């Protein structure tokens, strides 16, 4: 972030941080999402605060935040809640060509109550992270890189690399093997240039970014959630051992 912010300052650029996975993340004691002009968090079902869909923008400039709020609801000057308050009906005006990007109050009510559990869920994931490290050590895979000093990792995705040692199956075979053993896995992510849209729209070729391509073809996310029990984690670890052997 130091380097990104230096570039932004030099060229007077606005920085919008994608911190979809990073509610808990800090760098030198500063929270992800608060370095730049805006930070965007996701509350989709796979995230650490879940509202079903939706997310949250944080920003440092009150006027820009107000504009984001207006744009998120049809470009209307007052949202529906304020139009129908106890103070009586208030006219609104359409002041911009906006979007329908508002999160429902119902979703917010679900998400709000999870904020109090963010820390205890993170501590549980940290314990699971360590257990995975012990259970998987010695297997032909690459474990997640330890977090750098002065950082707080969100510990959101437990990603390992498979298929780069020559003694294990390739990643996609491993995914199939895990599925056959009844364990769900994920891929975060294939490289951007492998997706047809980017190849067709921008003429990108995955070979232009061989490291991104290699990681996209080798990465696997194993189940991690504060709800995972110790014995479930052991079952995943045993499945990984079997899936690597076939
Ligand atoms: C890094 C990253 N950014 C953004 C998003 C999109 O979040 P949302 O689905 O809330 O738009 C995701 C979703 O997984 C993500 O992983």
TrEMBL record:
Coiled-coil regions, chain positions: none
Family recorded in the similarity comment: Belongs to the DegT/DnrJ/EryC1 family.
Single Gene Ontology MF annotation: transaminase activity
Record's protein name: DegT/DnrJ/EryC1/StrS aminotransferase family protein
Keywords: Aminotransferase, Pyridoxal phosphate, Transferase
A single GO BP: polysaccharide biosynthetic process
Superkingdom: Bacteria
Signal sequence bounds: none
Organism expressing this protein natively: Lysobacter antibioticus
């Amino acid at each position: 972030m130091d380097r990104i912010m230096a570039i932004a300052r030099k060229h007077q650029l606005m920085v919008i941080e994608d911190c979809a996975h990073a509610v808990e993340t800090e760098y030198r004691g500063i929270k992800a999402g608060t370095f730049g002009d805006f930070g965007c968090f996701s509350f989709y079902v796979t995230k650490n605060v879940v509202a079903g869909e939706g997310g949250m923008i944080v920003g440092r400039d009150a006027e820009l935040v107000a504009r984001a709020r207006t744009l998120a609801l049809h470009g209307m000057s007052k949202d529906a809640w304020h139009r129908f308050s106890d103070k009586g009906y208030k006219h609104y005006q359409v002041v911009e060509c906006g979007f329908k990007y508002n999160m429902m109050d119902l979703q917010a009510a679900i998400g709000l109550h999870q904020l109090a559990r963010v820390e205890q869920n993170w501590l549980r994931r940290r314990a699971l992270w360590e257990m995975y490290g012990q259970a998987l050590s010695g297997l032909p895979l690459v474990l997640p890189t330890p977090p750098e000093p002065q950082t707080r990792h969100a510990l959101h995705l437990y990603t390992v690399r498979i298929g780069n040692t020559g003694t294990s199956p390739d990643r996609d075979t491993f995914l199939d093997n895990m599925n056959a053993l009844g364990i769900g896995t994920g891929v975060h992510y294939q490289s951007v240039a492998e997706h047809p849209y980017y190849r067709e729209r921008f003429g990108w070729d995955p070979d232009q970014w061989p490291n991104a391509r290699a990681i996209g073809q080798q990465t696997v996310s194993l189940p991690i959630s504060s709800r995972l029990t110790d014995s479930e984690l052991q079952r995943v670890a045993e499945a990984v051992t079997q899936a690597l052997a076939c």
